[in-house]
Amino acid sequence: MQKKTQMSKKISRRDFIGSAAAAAFTIVPSRVLGGPGYTPPSETVMVAGVGVAGMGSGDLRSIARCDAKIVALCDVDQEYAAKTFRQYPDAKVYVDYRKMLEKEKNIDAVVVATPDHTHAVVSMAAIKRGKHVYCEKPLTHSVYEARKIKEAAAQAKVATQMGNQGHSGEGIRLTCEWIWDGAIGTVREAHSWSDTGYWTDGLTARPRNTPPVPATLNWDLWLGPAPSRPYHPTYTPYNWRGWWDFGTAAIGDMACHNMDPAFWALKLGHPRTIEARSSHFTSETVADANIIRYQFPAREDMPPVTLTWYDGGLMPPRPEELEPGRKMSSNGILFIGDKGKIICGGWAGSPRLIPETKMREYAQKRPPRTLARSPGHRSEWVNACKGGPIPHGNFDYSAHLAEVVLLGNIAVRTGEKIQWDGPNMKATNVPGADKYIKPAYREGWSL
Predict the structure, then answer these.
(1) d(CA 93, CA 86)
(2) What does the pLDDT read at residue 30?
(3) Could you tell me if 37 and 132 are in contact, meaning their C-beta atoms sit under 8 angstroms apart?
(4) Nearest to 17 by CA among 307, 268, 285
(5) Among 255, 270, 266, which residue's Cα sits nearest to residue 348?
């Protein structure tokens, strides 16, 4: 059900109409590239985890089934991570990832599943040591970090993958093949959405009370490069997503999943402009609902497109082709072409032409598979660590995706329509955006 939200600025349908495109990449076997992170195919990959509860625990379980051994575990919250520690009794346990990387010389690869604000510093520390890296979405906390992580990974020639699992699925490949086949004609507009959000329990400022830090939590390391503040349980282990210093709001949480089909199928590069309309937010906490519009220039043989993001219960207009009684999912993406429409479920789910009569008609003549199928998102990465093909969600692709996603938050926070110079990483008309493009790190921390 669509949530009614008071927007800080009035939004009309005409204000937000969109479509999108995704970056292409080349698959080259890492055995050709060589480099300090290369692991011979005959060897089991020795993996360390940083941030090993929650999603990190799931990542490690899947990776352990892919001819990889979990040899070290690091988490600043020893109680929260205790269950994962018990699952790998032979793994060395650490609180500080820097000490782990220094001492554990047998580590080949690192899985990073910490809160967003420490993704980049952990990933960069591993990359600089020649370790392969799997990092959860949205890869980094800032645009600048995404750019630098991409550059460092390319220079180090390590195997990389971002944790947007749908990128390795069948659905996103079908979406690309159908759009490239002309199933809905020329696409100039796309809409993507998620109902996620509401992390701060109504808080718009920091809590006033300062309870003691739990004995099992290293609060200083949890803060990492973020500005110092007193501990409070509202920030961790989950609700950090709703605080600007730590999280990246709903778009950071879900757009790397739900907007991904547009980036690949429409071959998106840098957007030309980004603008946003949001419900109330503060300098501390994110908005509960947003509409964010990206305008992209023409690419290759594709015309300019507009891609619009919705979250917090806001949705695009219901397509008139959708049959009565047929619901739109709470997460998804809609492509609008001049000859039809494709709708996909969340997490880059399976595409369908609408109405269903068009889907049945197209099913009789849909194109052959032209994209290589994946053995699995985490399997791709482990195989690459052993010298196999570069993963489809490698940082060359996914860092750009994350960078563009995070630009949405800059448009939200500045309240301005941003004119974006992608190559130079500059909002040419909004000098105030600089502090969000490259936020300052706390003293003692660097990338």
Answers:
(1) 10
(2) 35
(3) yes
(4) 307
(5) 255
* CATH match of 30-165+377-390 with 3.40.50.720: yes
**Which tokens hold the place of 391?**
């993963």
Q: Domain segments of the chain: what residues?
A: 30-165+377-390
Across 76-104, b (16+ Cβ under 10 Å) vs e yields: bbbebbeebeeebeebebbbebeebbeeb
Cis peptide bond prior to 237, omega within 30° of 0: yes
CA distance 427 to 438: 12
For residue 62, report the phi and psi dihedrals to the nearest 5 degrees.
-65, -40
Tokens of 259: 């907007």
Span 46-92, pLDDT tens digits: 999 999 999 999 999 999 999 899 999 999 999 999 999 999 999 99
Helix (H, G, I), strand (E, B) or coil at 18: coil
pTM higher than the cut 0.85 = yes
Q: Is 138 exposed, middle or buried, given 0-12, 13-18 or 19+ CB atoms closer than 10 A?
A: buried
